[in-house]
## 1
Amino acid sequence: MPYKCCAYGCNNVDGVDKNIKLFRFPLNETTEKEWVNAIQRKDFKPSKYSRLCSAHFNPNDFVENPNRLVLKEGVVPSNFNYPATRIKKYTKKKITGNVYSPVLNEIVQNNSHPGYSTKLIFWCA
Ligand SMILES: [Zn+2]
């Protein structure tokens, strides 16, 4: 199972785009809290499987290294997209992409009206 970025509205997965790298949450508790604050997801608690992708960091947050992306110590992610349009894009992608859940899949298959499906997925998400 590839890791998926935990940022809201971000669909980046590990190993698809070589320009995107997924990072584990920092072990330092203070920095970890800053990451969680930056992500702004309600009741979000990172687990050891939680990953955040490189798209949420600035270029100068990385150690200069030509072969791979390495984060500098103590940096906090800052590039996030919270607007509603972004959320809509995300939910629409869910319908055409991977199956969200067996129940939802059934609803999507039985009702091809896009507005209805989007609304349902949005409500479930
Ligand atoms: Zn991401």
Note: The CA atoms of residues 39 and 47 lie 14 Å apart.
## 2
Amino acid sequence: MNRTGDGRMRRRTFFKVAAGSAAAAALPWAHLVRAAAAGAAAAGQADAGRRPNIVFILADDLGYADVGCYGQQRIKTPSIDRLAAEGMRFTDFYAGGCVCIPSRSCLMQGLHSGHTRHHGSNSHVPLEDSDLTVAEVLRDAGYTTACLGKWALGDDLQGPGAAHKQGWDYYFGEPNQTTVHSYYLPHMWEFDRDGSVSGLPPDKEMRKVPLPGNEGGGRKEYSHDKLAEKALAYLDARAAGLATASPLRAGPKPFFLYVPFTIPHADFEAPSDEPYSREDWPETERIYAAMITRMDADIGRIMARLKERGLDENTLVIFTSDNGPTNGKDHKAAFFSSAGPLRGLKASLYEGGIRVPFVARWPGKVAPGATCRTALAFWDFLPTAAELAGAAAPANLDGISFVPALLGRPQPEHEFLYWESPRQRAVRVGRFKAILSGADLKVEGLYDLAADLGEQTDVASAHADIAQKARAFALAAGSRPAEPALPDAAPRQTKPKAKAEKN
Ligand SMILES: [Ca+2]
């Protein structure tokens, strides 16, 4: 029996039965859980006023120290820094994996990479209908959902992994994990289940949206800008829904807006290298910095629009990245010290590959300027979102809700955190982190992150008990370790490979 597939079915079945039970009894909107159980629509307008909207912005290959609030000195990120100043900064938050697809798979499903379909591989394996996503959990709890950007978990527009078949009511972007890495796409794709954003008749399938300025190799329409514009349009549409909703009608619903931007993933291209045009840096580094600052400005616009539309006070905004930084053609992660003090880059399970910036702002709920040092990970987002929505978390998740941390209450901790890649496994136990390899999961090294954030000194012999404990967790948590990793799919476009981690 395939443990993962079986587990997925059980989770989905359990959720359908349990959604709406009193999982969120400690929260002020617990009574709405009962309303949701009687029918999500019945919760009506009160929902939008009490359950928070959620905006989750995901950067791509952005390093732990690529933003000012995590130590970046030269790349300007005032909007992200403001999010941190007005909210909470997490020092020990981890991505789901060290490359794009497995990381997003963990984020969407509340599972670590031992239990997702992708494990640690970047192969283009789509989600199946039996996979339960956070979008489905929130939609079933009465939210309206939108994904703008790099979906990456279903390239086939008609297949079961397609975004509109995995819980998203609205989608705009390029779902293909490889194609999306061009910033001058000839077209993008849109799906608007009720037509409320596009103003067009409701869609049943993805609709192609041509970008005429990029036809024939043209470079007039920067794809990222289209995502940012759609994010603002989406907020406008939600605000309009709030304004026109009648207490006699169902809705308005709270919303979940997921914005997986592609910046600063290669290709390194931008309409301008401002505000760095006069810096004496290699051209690609000016572009890299300009891409991040451009995304930051768009995050500022999203925050301003939330405020203008009266949505700001009841919206949790999260910003993070899907994995660590990488070297590329003419780009060196070391140029901006993108990984900061951390060892390793994208594609490595050392901290630089998986520890990411993570900030959360929620006025009146998250204390301004707060810091959370608890070790948490992408698979904690689904149970967190479920709790915020007043829904029961599905069974058999690996994640735990970090709502307590957000609210400044004692945060339960993981017994361990676990990651897979084709070459390594990693386990964090308390302040220790083990790197394992080979079919027998040999402990390559054990590091005391409290004393040695850069993972330079192997303390496995001094802490043999911890090393063995970590190995036992990996053996129990992992996908079949003796089985060879799935091969990565051949990319359709050239993209720079991460430099192999030394040692
Ligand atoms: Ca990535």
Note: The first helix runs from residue 3 to 18.
## 3
Amino acid sequence: MNQKFQQKKDFKCKEHPQESAIFWCKSADCHENRIFCIQCQKLQKHYKHFNEDVDEINKLNQFLITKSQNSKDLIKDSKIQLQQTALSLQYLISGLQFHSVDWKTKQMNSTLINNQQHLSLRFYLMR
Ligand SMILES: [Zn+2]
Ligand SMILES: [Zn+2]
């Protein structure tokens, strides 16, 4: 027999430890043992939840894989968003630095031109 199948069969019902759990209940307001056996089912413990919320135990794995995949995707998305934010912040900072350097250069140039004009004016007056 398949090893994985055997592991799945090892799920035991909490209330009936001699029984293998073969159903699970995903109802949000279920207060019963979520993973349960045929005995529980016969006692109609999840009777109100049965139709849409109770599934076979062998579908639990797939459900959990899908759920964990979703949360992995969420983490991946958040990381990408964080990287993009950091990147645009970097652009913003380098843009600001560029502008402030540009502004300083312009200021320095205009001071230089003013000084030259003063100098030439002096020379003119001295003659
Ligand atoms: Zn239930
Ligand atoms: Zn049970």
Note: The longest strand covers residues 23-25.
